[in-house]
Amino acid sequence: MQKIKNICCIGAGYVGGPTMAVIAQKCPEINVTVVDINEKRIAAWNDENVENIPIYEPGLSDVVKESRGRNLFFSTDVDAAIKNAEMIFISVNTPTKTYGVGKGMAADLKWIELCARQIARVSITDKIVVEKSTLPVRTAEALKSILENTGNGVKFQILSNPEFLAEGTAVEDLMDPDRVLIGGDIDTEEGRTAIQTLVDVYAHWVNKENILTTNVWSSELSKLTANAFLAQRVSSINAMSELCEKTGADVNEVARAIGMDSRIGSKFLKSSVGFGGSCFQKDILNLVYIAKRFGLQEVADYWEQVIIMNDHQKRRFAMNIVESLFNTVSGKKIALLGWAFKKDTNDTRESAAIYVADYLLNEHAEVVVYDPKVKPEQIYADLDYLGTRTEEENRALLTVVNEPYKACKEAHAVAILTEWDEFKAYDWQHIYDAMLKPAFVFDGRNILDINDLKRIGFVAHGIGMTQ
Ligand code: UDX
Ligand code: UDX
Q1: How many Å apart are CA 415 and CA 439, to the nearest integer?
Q2: Which of 1, 42, 316, 451 is the most exposed place for a label (fewest CB within 10 A)?
Q3: Known catalytic residues?
């Protein structure tokens, strides 16, 4: 296989965009073209003002600025980019199926298959195809059979190279990854050469010891396993948070005490209103589906419990608001601070805030939302997508404001749903003064000092501590 001169990436989303921007920055001799069928998204990536790129990630605009137009390109001409490239990354979304067999559980591979067919149709030279999207184990097999049955003599090698970046720290994670995982056909000379070709791309900036190579199936399954383990830690600490509230223990103290055990480790032990994001729920559901398909009911049940616990945590948070506000929030103004699924991102997929808002709206609360990065149309789209009520009803019951103090003014309660740093810096005395009394705060991220709030006069609730 010749040296890579042109890389194409299909899918200019949260994974494809940042990953390719970093590859382009680190490999100036490689031309990287990111393509997407979404014209608006590509136009935003090409916006003259680099601050307008469609994805907010700390540090990303600087990386894009450095390479865009030099060796980083964004385009809607998918065919041309595929044709030119020796290596093609597939970074399209693989949402949970909303129809047919596996509905609500299996990953919808429609887009992946369309990409494979398009690659097969336009390729006239040999290609290495890299699965970047998270895929069910053994998807590479399906890709291979689609690619190889086109009959035009082009040879394809399929690699799995799952992305472990977390949103909000994408650039950091890409620049200095714990590991890069590359799975390929280790049993053939061509497979090993393809693996090495991708290793050489990453070796521009990642230590060779941190680049792991495995067979394709291990690589595909490792990605699902990593996300399942991470999500399981959050559900485990959240399960403990409910017990803490009943027993007088403080979940932060428990997390600290167990986290100092080097076998357990201190990361991912922050109790919260529930995990969100595009990956955890989708990947676990997918794992559950695969386990069931192989008849492994106990394995499926074990992992499904992680989701059940997370749904419970979101509902429990909303119900605690209702109960604390004297069992009714009907007609009461409740300010939600934060809508993104975590801080430092404008991504809202599966955010706990969506579900908390939905529960509160069911109770006829008057919900007002402020988030530093999420646009109002996204907030309404997220609610509409649930289908609980009509678009008109959602707009009548929920308001989005662009100023936090306005959100909290004359509110009965404030709920913190995303751990944005700026929330800690607010003048909470000022917020208290402008609220109706008794003034409640429900900190779904444990970012505020509950005792300070109580001193001001708030009735303050954190997660996993007695009031
Ligand atoms: C992530 C991960 O890549 C993936 O592992 C996970 O399975 C789903 O979410 P992400 O980059 O966050 O993907 O998704 P998204 O921001 O939705 O980007 C995907 C892009 O692919 C979209 O911009 C979409 O327009 C594009 N796309 C989709 C194509 O260009 N062609 C298609 O056929 C389908
Ligand atoms: C995750 C994985 O971390 C990443 O490796 C993978 O590539 C994609 O999925 P991401 O979803 O971007 O990344 O964010 P992550 O930081 O993992 O957080 C996921 C959710 O868990 C967020 O809603 C976050 O607030 C929540 N969380 C995380 C907690 O509630 N407590 C914690 O201790 C950590």
Answers
A1: 11
A2: 451
A3: 163, 223, 279
Q: Is 344 in the pocket of ligand 2 (CB under 6 A)?
A: no
Q: How far apart are the CA of 318 and the centre of ligand 1, in A?
A: 31
195: three-class secondary structure by DSSP: helix
* Whether the Cβ atoms of residue 255 and residue 447 lie closer than 8 Å to each other: no
> Cα–Cα distance between 231 and 57 in angstroms, integer?
22
User: pTM of this prediction?
Assistant: 0.93
Say how far apart CA 176 and CA 411 lie, in whole Å: 43
Residue 350 CA: nearest ligand 2 atom is: 23
pLDDT, tens digit, for every residue of 28-77? Answer: 999 999 999 999 999 999 999 999 999 989 999 999 999 999 999 999 99
Rg (CA), the chain: 24
Q: Place 139 in a pLDDT band, splitting at 50, 70 and 90.
A: confident
Q: Which amino acid is at 229?
A: F
- Could you say which ligand is closest to the alpha carbon of residue 353? 2
pLDDT digits (tens, 9 = 90+) for 339-350: 999 999 999 999
* Atom of ligand 2 at shortest range from CA of 273: 30
Using most ligand atoms within 8 A of CB, pick from 133, 167, 417 the residue to mutate for ligand 2. Answer: 167
> Phi then psi for 11, rounded to 5 degrees?
110, 105
- C-beta 26 within 6 A of ligand 2: no
Of 62, 55, 64, 61, nearest to 32 (Cα)?
64
Render the burial of 207-225: b for 16+ CB within 10 Å, e for the rest: eeeebebbebebbbbbbbe
State which amino acid sits at residue 328. Answer: T
Residue having the nearest C-alpha atom to atom 28 of ligand 2:
268
Which atom of ligand 1 is nearest to 162's Cα? Answer: 5
Q: Token pair for residue 101?
A: 């067999």
Q: Say if ligand 2 is within 6 A of residue 53 CB.
A: no
Identify the bridge partners of residue 402 per DSSP, sorted by sequence position: none
